[in-house]
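Sequence in, structure out. Go.
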Amino acid sequence: MKWFVIAMCWMVFFLLPAARAFAAEGKPIHVLAISDPVTPVTADYLHGALKSAAESGAELVLVEIDTPGGLDTAMRQMVKDIMASPVPVVVHVAPSGARAASAGAVITLAADIAAMAPGTNIGAAHPVNLGEKPDNVMEQKVVNDAEAYLRGIAEKRGRNAALAGRMVRESLSLPAEEALKEGVIDLIAADRADILRKLDGRELQRGGNSVVLRTVGARIEFREMSARQRILSVIGNPNVAYVLLMIGILGIFFELSNPGVILPGVFGGISLILAFFAFQTLPVNYAGVLLILLALILFILEVKVVSHGMLTVGGVISMVLGSLMLFESPEPYLRVSWQVIVITVAATVIFFLFAVTKALKAYRKKPATGAEGLVGERGKADTDIAPEGKVFVRGEYWEAWSDEPISAGEKIEVVAVEGMRVKVRKGGSNV
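Output:
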């Protein structure tokens, strides 16, 4: 009996670490990356990842974040999902050089464990209005609401609520070392392997119960955006939305100008719908849209009306102003870049100038068919014309008359057409 007890103790001693490692490997760690502005697409991405982690019984969800901020509504949805997640959520501001600014700071503070890589920063969570500039009272209400929201999140997670409030009111931003010192985050980890090592054995309180994380040796499962989410994320870029708007307007214009071509209308319609989808997540100023439409109308009128370039100049000015006003935001990632505006406006202007040139050439071009097409044509007299006879012009014989006598074989030029007869003169007189 004594030897049996000793044997069992040795088995427990040697097999317990293996059992713990097996248990850790049996519960995967889900990893997802957020490296763009926070939008409804980002919120949908996180929601799906947390749902998948809960269904598969994951050990935790590791969110690697690098974002300049984003939309308040999307951020609040992500915070609610993190708070309600049955699976622990760890947000890691990484890699070095990354940031969790504005909405990214709120999401980081909402996590069960907030971590940062060296050389990263967090904060600058002052709310920014994306529409018309509010009055002082309304702006103060927005700031107070955002401050209370972030302080509440920090208090719930046991973090420095006073400093979190300063991130909103004073746009305070902290590097990783200072954020750890001030109790804003829980740890500093250089990379994914480092944070998983530091999380192993860490104890969390969830739903009144104590949870011990087992992360060393755990299976890593990456959760990428779906194809739909990737497409919608690209469309949500202001530069892409702007180009889609221009393509859509031009496509519809070409279809209306040339009914039956079909392709420009279909392509333009799809582009416009995608642009309007993007506008739901962007600070659109519809005065900018109207200015762009006015610019295209002026370009079209230039084709119809000879204005010596004044309509084109007005169209260029209207398009540039409309492009600049299209998205009103102090944040660069929510505005159309100057390079895209210049290229798009230049391409549109060049195209319409090309169309105007072709239209003028077609207008001034001598008719090539019908009675008008015969005027000015050269030929020769088939018979004497005194004053009537026959001529050979453009491969055909015509009854002709002339105000001057013309001998057979002489060169002639058509000066008028009446019915099936032509009036001619000697061709040599104009040579």
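Check: The chain has three domains: 17-228, 236-364, 370-430. The two ends are 132 Å apart (CA to CA).
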